[in-house]
Structure formats: structure tokens, C-alpha cells
Write a structure and sequence with these properties.
0% of the residues lie in helices and 54% in strands. It is mainly β. It is elongated and about 50 Å long. The chain is built from no helices and 11 strands.
């Protein structure tokens, strides 16, 4: 069982920045593929960014150039640096881990952290 705990959400003005953190349990964090998702009110949860065990990254088009995903394996933590925030970025942001085990993998979710972009 892997536990994920997000932090760093809050209220920010348009154009501002926030950095989300997700701390993971487990001794093999460096092997996890980590992602951020978000869910706005009345909408489905959507994928935002992913960082693989080899540190390769991928982003959904609407955050490219504004958001950066990174990881610190020594701290078992993944980050999402969000710049140039827009009101449309308002959502609950969730951390996701894909944990490989022999022959399969497991998916885990954090509890989410609220990000509100408003003046």
C-alpha cells in the first residue's frame, strides 16, 4: 500500500504561481511513475502531467510552458510548479502513482488539494 499526501494548494490571483507537493510512502519511490490530475467542479478528472521513473516528462497541451513536473527521489516527493495561472486552472489537483510489481502494477491516488485562481 502506497500513501500519497498532497499539499501546496490555495487561493492565487490570475497570473500567479503555486507549487504543489506530493509526498509518497514506500521504499521504491524512484520506480514509481507519478502524475498529476485535476478535477474542476462539474467536470471529469483530467490528466495534467506525468514524470516517469527515468525522469521523462509529458504534459497536456493546455499547461505546456506554464506547468513543470519534477521529482526528488531522496524525499519521495513529486512537485508541480504552476506559473501563469488562469481561472480555468481552478480545480482539485490529485497526485497519482503507478507502482510496478512483478507481473503487474498498482495505481494509487492522493486525497487532493484545492487550487483556486481568482481575483
Amino acid at each position: 500500500q502506497v500513501q500519497l499526501v498532497e499539499s501546496g494548494g490555495g487561493l492565487v490571483q490570475p497570473g500567479g504561481s503555486l507549487r504543489l507537493s506530493c509526498a509518497a510512502s514506500g521504499s521504491a519511490f524512484s520506480n514509481y511513475a507519478m502524475s498529476w490530475y485535476r478535477q474542476a467542479p462539474g467536470k471529469q478528472r483530467e490528466w495534467v502531467a506525468r514524470i516517469s521513473a527515468d525522469d521523462s516528462t509529458n504534459y497536456v497541451d493546455f499547461v505546456k510552458g506554464r506547468f513543470t513536473i519534477s521529482r526528488d527521489n531522496a524525499k519521495n516527493t513529486v512537485y508541480l510548479q504552476m506559473n501563469s495561472l488562469k481561472p480555468d486552472d481552478t480545480a482539485v489537483y490529485y497526485c497519482n502513482a503507478i507502482v510496478p510489481v512483478p507481473g503487474t502494477s498498482f495505481m494509487y491516488w492522493g486525497q487532493g488539494t484545492q487550487v483556486t485562481v481568482s481575483s
